[in-house]
Specification:
The chain contains 6 helices and no strands. The longest helix is centred in the middle third of the chain and has 18 residues. The N and C termini lie far apart (41 Å).
């Protein structure tokens, strides 16, 4: 993965040597991508690929963020990570101003709530030393 990341970073520097914005996704001019421009492209890609044809509503771009956040949190819970210590980095990565903006993802996924409750209950039952 490190090699892949290095190759991408190198390709990015060659293609856009002067990045004007610290965003992860940037345009060919080195600026942050604008939602109003990205959304129609995403919509066209989803429609062309026929993704979500049987779904009650077609996939939305913002749902990718939600899926990323939920899967990251699920992984952290399953591996016993210190969620409180890692939430600030996830918040920053997602562009949230503060961790409280990221916590709502916990309430949006029943599996996350179950893991959080199990951890809480496990901590309450742990013997005191």
């Amino acid at each position: 993965m490190r090699l892949l990341h290095g190759n991408l970073a190198g390709a990015r520097k060659v293609r856009t040597p002067t990045v004007k914005d610290p965003a992860f996704f940037i345009s060919l001019t080195g600026k942050r991508l604008i939602y109003a421009c990205v959304h129609p492209v995403f919509r066209a890609l989803v429609d062309t690929a026929a993704v979500g044809l049987d779904a009650p509503h077609p996939p939305r771009l913002h749902e990718l963020r939600h899926t990323f956040a939920v899967r990251t949190l699920l992984h952290w819970y399953r591996t016993g990570a210190n969620i409180q210590a890692r939430i600030p980095s996830l918040s920053t990565y997602m562009g949230h101003r503060e961790p409280a903006c990221t916590y709502w993802y916990l309430s949006a996924a029943p599996e996350l709530l179950a893991l959080a409750a199990a951890r809480r209950d496990g901590l309450r039952k742990a013997p005191r030393s």
